[in-house]
Amino acid sequence: MSTHLHHPVVLGAGPVGRAVVARLVERGAHPTVVTRSGTELVGADAVAADVTDPVVAKTVLGHATAVFQCAQPPYHRWAEEFPGLQRTIVEGCEAAGAHLIALENLYGYGRPDGPMTEDHPMRPHTAKGRVRAAMWDELHAAHTQGRVRTAAVRASDFFGPGVAMSTYGERFFPRLLAGRKAELLGDPETRHSITYVPDVAAAMVRVAEDESAWGRAWHVPTAPAITQREIVELAAEAAGAEATYTEVHRWMLRLAGLVNPGAKETIEMLYEFEHDFVIDSSAFEARFDMTATPLATALDETIEWFRGQAS
Q: Using one digit for the tens of pLDDT, what is the confidence trace for 233-262?
C-alpha cells in the first residue's frame, strides 16, 4: 500500500465516495469519511463537518495524507458553491501537506467533435461547463505553483450500485424492472459513454498510489460507447424485461423545471445526449494496465443492486 494511503480522507458519501471507501478498505487502508451528517461506512471513521468553512476544512484534513474529493453541492447551486468548496479543500490539503485527487466530469470540454481524450481543449459553452473548466484551471494552478500535489479523475455519466440521481439511475433501471419504459434524454441513436462507479473508485485509488500520476487529468476506464437504445436493450436483457423506453424532450424538462430545479439545470446539458458523447480512456488504461468492467457485467451488477432495493 502506498504511503499516500496511510491516512486517506474521503469527502462525500454519495455513490462514488462510498465506492472509494470500499476500495480503500480492500487495499488495507483505514479511511476517514467526512460528510455534513457524519455518515457511517463499514471500515471507515466518520466525521461530521462542513468543509466549506476554511477553518473546519483545515482541522478535519489536518492529518490526511491523501484526500479524495467526491463531494459536490446540489446540482442547481454549482455556480454559487462549487468553486468555493474546492478552494477550501485545496487550502486544507496545502496546510496538511496532503495529496488531492478530485473527481471531475466532462462538462469542461464542451460539445465534442469526436472522442474526448485528456488533451481535448477546454471549450465550455454551458454555465456548468464554464464552472468545471475554471475549477480545473485553479486545481492545476495549485499543483504547478507547488502548493498541493493534485490530480483529476474524470468520468462520463455514472451508473452502478447506489447511483440514483443520474441519467442512468432511478428513472432508468427501476422502471425496466417494474415492466415500465426507461427514460432517455435526447436521441436514442446517439452513442453515449457511461462510466461504472466501481471503476471510478478503482481509478481514483490507483492514481493516489502512483508518484508519477500527479499534475494532470485522467479519464476513468470506460466501456466502449454504444447507442442509448443499445444500453436499454442490454439493461433489459439483464433485467429479464422488455426493452422499451420513452424519450424525454426539452419541453418536458422545461415543464418539470417549474417545480424541480434539477430538471431545469439539465436542459443546457442535453447536447451530451443529442450528439455522440464518447470518452477515450486509453491513456489511463495503457499507463495503469487497467480496463473497464465489461458493460454486460456492470449492468448485471447494477440490476442486481436495484432489484435488492425493491425487495
A: 999 999 999 999 999 988 777 877 777 887
Cβ atoms within 10 Å, residue 42: 8
Write b or e for each residue in 196-212: b if 16 or more Cβ atoms lie within 10 A of its Cβ, otherwise e.
bbbbbbbbbbbbbeeee
pTM of the model: 0.96
Q: Give me the amino acid identity at 148.
A: V
Quote the distance between the C-alpha of residue 116 and its chain's center: 16
In the block, residue with C-alpha cell 486544507: 92
Cell numbers representing residue 199 in the block: 471503476
45 C-beta neighbours (distance < 10 Å), count: 12
Residue 23's CB is within 10 A of a number of other CB atoms, namely 21
9 DSSP β-pair partners:
32, 67
Q: How far is residue 100's CA from residue 94's CA, in Å, rounded to a whole number? A: 9
Tens-digit pLDDT profile for residues 108-133: 999 999 999 999 999 999 999 999 99
Beta carbons within 8 Å of 216's beta carbon, 6+ residues apart: 118, 140, 151, 152
Query: Grid coordinates in use for 160?
Result: 452502478
What are 157's strand-pairing partners? 194
Q: Is 248 left (phi over 0), alpha (psi -120 to 50) or beta?
A: beta
Phi-psi sector, 141: left (phi>0), alpha (psi -120 to 50), beta: alpha
Q: Which of 28, 49, 144, 45 is closest to 92 using CA atoms?
A: 49
Assign 307 to helix, strand or coil.
helix
- Contact between 272 and 192 under an 8 Å Cβ cutoff? The reply is yes
57-62 own/partner pairs: CB under 8 Å, 24+ apart: 57/88, 57/89, 57/91, 57/92, 58/91, 58/92, 58/95, 58/96, 60/9, 60/32, 60/34, 60/92, 61/9, 61/89, 61/92, 61/93, 61/95, 61/96, 61/98, 62/92, 62/95, 62/96
CA angle 136, 110, 199 (to 5 degrees): 65
What are the strands, taking DSSP E only, across 6-50?
8-11, 32-35, 45-48
